[in-house]
Amino acid sequence: MIPISPASATVVYTFDPATSGGVAGTITTLVKAAATVITAELDMAKANWTALNAAEINCTNLTVTEYLWHIHTKWDNPGKVSELTAGCSFAKTGNHLDPDYACGPNSDHIKEMTCAHKTYGCNTTSYAEAPGVCEKGDLSGKFGTMKAVSGKISETWIDTGNYPTVAKYKYTWSIVLQAVCGTATHHQRPRHHIIHHN
Length: 198
What we know:
- By secondary structure, this protein is mainly β.
- The chain has one domain (9-197): Immunoglobulin-like (Sandwich), CATH 2.60.40.
- It is built from four helices and nine strands; from the N terminus they run βββαββαααββββ.
- Strands 1, 2, 3, 4, 5, 6, 7, 8 and 9 form a nine-stranded antiparallel β-sheet that branches.
- The longest helix has 7 residues, at 49-55.
- The chain is globular and about 40 Å long.
- The chain starts with 8 loop residues before the first strand and ends with a strand.
- 40% of the residues are buried.
- One of its GO terms (biological process) is superoxide metabolic process.
- One of its GO terms (molecular function) is metal ion binding.
């Protein structure tokens, strides 16, 4: 018997301030066949910038207001819904979700021959014209960075082109925020949980 996937699902990625360096809130994805609605409600005001500065020298004495964000393929932080610094390493969270081999520099297939000679051209303009140019997990490539205003991120995006379907969803995925510090970035990652199927 082949299980039938639901037509839609709500997946919530939770930032627990106790483990995500003070960042609190959620990124919620309402995944449907035609489009996915992504809503971020995050409070960055109490972020542990001391830990961030210690892990990334380029973040020292900067007010971080901008974040790259991606779906990563792995979560190896047992018992935790979110993490900061060491818990956000490649070993703990893997690379970007890229089932269609768009082959960005952080694709989960980057070491495979299929990606060897590809040039990655994902940005908001190219994505609007041809969604396949972006990794499914490259959310900042598709929509731009998340921006905090007065310490808060409150924004909604609609992905009509290339978001992973309900049938492809894996419980091991995480959404990673990378603080943009000049030309450097650093990671804060939540795990997620499904709250509803219909």
